[in-house]
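Q: I have two molecules that I believe assemble together. Could you output structure tokens for the complex as a whole instead of separate predictions?
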Amino acid sequence: MANRSPSAFRRYRWKELGLLIIPFMILLLELTQLLLVKQLKGDPAASFTFRNLPTAQALIPMLGLIAVLLGTHILFSIFFPKTDQLLLPLVGLLSGFGVLMATRLGPNVNDPNLGARQLIWVILGLLVCIATLFGLRNMNWLRRYPYTWAVLGIILVGITIGKALSVRNLDSPTHDQLNIGPLNLQPSELLKICIIIFFAAYLSENRDILSGVTLRRLRLPPLRQLGPILTMLGIALLLFLVVRELGLALLIYGLFLSMIYLGSGKISYVIGGLFLFALLGFIGYGLFGYVRQRFAILGIDVVTPGHFDETLYQSSAFQIVQGLIALASGGIIGSGLGLGHPGFVPVVQSDMVLTALGEELGLAGLFAIIGLYLLLIYRGFRIAIETSDAFNQLLAAGLTSIFAIQTIIIAAGNMKLFPLTGIPLPFLSYGGSSILANYIIIGILLRISHNTAMEREGFA
Amino acid sequence: MISTSSEGKDMPLDVFLLILRLLLIVLLYLFLMQVVIAITRDLRKTAAVSADADSKTPPVVGHLVVIDSGPSNLTPGTPFDLVPQTTIGRGPTNTIQLPDSFISAEHTRLWYRNGAWYVQDAGSTNGTYLNNQPAREALPAKPGDIVQVGFIRFKLTQ
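A: Yes, here they are, computed for all two components at once.
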């Protein structure tokens, strides 16, 4: 694999290295700011001298992350010189911000080691990403056994449900976690990937039938071919309604619609799916109190005080209202990392991390972060377009949709545009399983990009 | 820990932190710009490549001749044109479409690079074989080799 030809210098991934420089500067700058603020906070007369700058020792966590990112970059250059060069810098900067926010928010949620743990998860994630790249030498074993992936997904759901039912406390935020020794794993994070692999494998095998039947029988979806997918979807949705994981149900439904659209190219399916979704939404609204409550929060008028139901505010709207206040207090350029007051927002380290970012980096910083997500998603779809075979296309586009749908659901939830649901913001939220799952996705995307490039350049 | 403000070169902490904050925003947008520039360059390169590809229809660089039609209704001796990137399968997107129930929607891929053919199975049910070797990974092929797609056997010719 390793190409040590004279052109190795020219083939080196200079673009990736160049793009990594600014993220490294940003990460070091922000850690410096965080340490300065920690050291000097509470002293209004404090002034800055160079003696106050943190020592290299204090910067070790970020330097460690930078070293691991550089190591990953060098490994890619040796073994996968042709794989996409933009994903690593984008993802590295996003997860660097994740580590910074966890470090900054740790004291606010009474967990000083939060940052250190997030850092370890990110490093593990990068290792998992490299392992995925090496391990997926042959994409065919993903494609060949769609039902194995479906069954694996159902088992993961089953574990989640079993855990939730045994705890009998569906309101606790951790009811969907699985404790193995010291690890808190969320099986649902891996479920997303299994579902996408299943959809991609199934749809790429049945694509001709999907679009062929609709041509003859005016827009009637071929139920026989859609059967396995609908069954899978039904199981996932039903089980999530049982454990009250509204966010995941939404995510899975969104992924289902994207995959059907990508596989068939028919907008009528998406419109039909949205109608069905509205119908299901009404049923859910009528059946479940907590769904009604989530929607009631959307009607709250934050600007005129005393205008809303006090009990609603105390019970569940508190989180969102505090989040909105935090976002508003950030203004255009924000209060600066470490200088805001994100401690008022419940679960600020995971679900509400966007509000903390908005408060401390301001509107300008938030726009830049949304920009990072946009570029990441653009790149994912680009990888999908460039590859030549249907399974890889569907897989890459589907995995990228995970990022897109997750980001939009949770960002809209934080801003009271949509009922708030508990799903993590990719790479920024605190949480090991989510980081690992996201890095597996990045690994698969890089592998697809590598395969496409190899095929184009030939094996010589 | 806390510096005394008697030193002349001191800067109020607030001012320094404001500078850091502005620097961060500048750096963030510089990074975004750098990525966008990289993307535009990429797109321009791909556009140039595909313009090249569009200007001429893909050249026919070889043929697959049916030598054993197996269970299908192909006539032995039928030639199929091969372009540098050829896909074989039942689906409508393939270069060579074989409407046979033993052929998967996307069955086999063949591509021509640096004077040699490569054959790889595209995840089919009944497999692809090159000279009776299963072609799960890409295998190099030369004219005269026997390519078996499902139960149909072809001879690769110039």
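A: One point stands out. DSSP finds 16 helices and three strands in chain A.
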